[in-house]
Amino acid sequence: MKRKLSMKKLTLTVLLIATLSTTACSEQKINEWACGHEIGQEHCWSIAEKAYNNKDYDKLKKYLEISSNYGNAKSQNALGTLYETDFLGVKDYQQAVYWHKKSAEQGVADSQFALGDKYVNGLGVKQDYLQAIKWFQKAAEQNNKQAQYSLGYMYSNGMGVQQNTKQAIEWYQKAAEQGQVNAQYNLGIMYDFGKGIEQNYKLAFQWYKKAAEQGHKKAQHSVASMYELGQGVEKDLLKAKEYYKKSCDNGVDKSCTGLKEIEKQLIKIK
Predict the structure, then answer these.
(1) With the CA atoms of 34, 38, 39 and 44 taken in that order, what torsion angle do they form, in degrees rounded to the nearest 10?
(2) Which of 1, 126, 154, 223 has the most CB within a 10 Å radius?
(3) C-alpha 66, offset from chain centre
């Protein structure tokens, strides 16, 4: 929505809907009217939320389309997201790009990120790293953690921009502090191996552990390894075993190997 509705407009909305309800207008007509007018957008969103909760995705799509065609950026973002999921039975990335672009141009960060992601992966649009960078940058500057991570990744790998580890670390840091798990893991790697920053095992361990606690299987392996070697943390074979097992259970083969080796060491200690 372009701006928050005033109490006066909200009151007017309620009165108009109540008036329409007492006429020959059907509920469908009332809803269509609401979704196509500024003062009815709050009512429109309550309809959309109810349809979503009831898993009535065709109805959800219908009213989001009316609202989106009216120009509601929030609805455009939701409609774009709907098209890129399986809710409608088939994904339509071209439609997703169409609606996300309209929303992104109105400044919605989630759509800006989604549009950047489509350009990176060539979904519904020709792959274009420069366009991806453009939209990720806009979303990242609005503190969107997914865009911040993506921007960091592109700087780290020189995708659409000159490789720049310093910039990569800055964006990873911003995303990691907001809990973005891949940014936390990648930041751990930077500190672990001294990539573009002074090597610091303690900070590497801290970021790996944050990612590991969110279930990141590679981070779980890294945490286990650092517990085993005593890098950045006091050596603790029992903790190493715990994290190797978590990573092994998540399908990391080298963690399964590490788990066996730790178990052998623990038997010897006993």
Answers:
(1) 40
(2) 223
(3) 26
* DSSP of the chain: --SPPPHHHHHHHHHHHHHHHTTT--HHHHHHHHHTSGGGHHHHHHHHHHHHHTT-HHHHHHHHHHHHHHT-HHHHHHHHHHHTSSTTSS--HHHHHHHHHHHHHTT-HHHHHHHHHHHHHTSSS---HHHHHHHHHHHHTTT-HHHHHHHHHHHHHTSSS---HHHHHHHHHHHHHTT-HHHHHHHHHHHHHTSSS---HHHHHHHHHHHHTTT-HHHHHHHHHHHHHTSSS---HHHHHHHHHHHHHTT-HHHHHHHHHHHHHHHHH-
Centroid of chain to Cα 75: 18
Tokens at 212, concatenated: 């590991």
161-217 tens-digit pLDDT: 999 999 999 999 999 999 999 999 999 999 999 999 999 999 999 999 999 999 999
- Angstrom CA distances, 120 to 29, 114, 141, 183, 266, stand at 41, 10, 18, 18, 47
Range 13-31 burial, b when 16+ CB lie within 10 A, else e: beebbeebeeeeeeeeebb
Closest CA to 208 of 200, 193, 218, 198: 218
- This prediction has a pTM of 0.87
- Answer yes or no: are the C-beta atoms of 118 and 92 closer than 8 Å: no
- Which residue from 248, 229, 227 is spatially nearest to 238, judged by alpha carbons? 227
For residue 77 the two structure tokens come to 């973002």
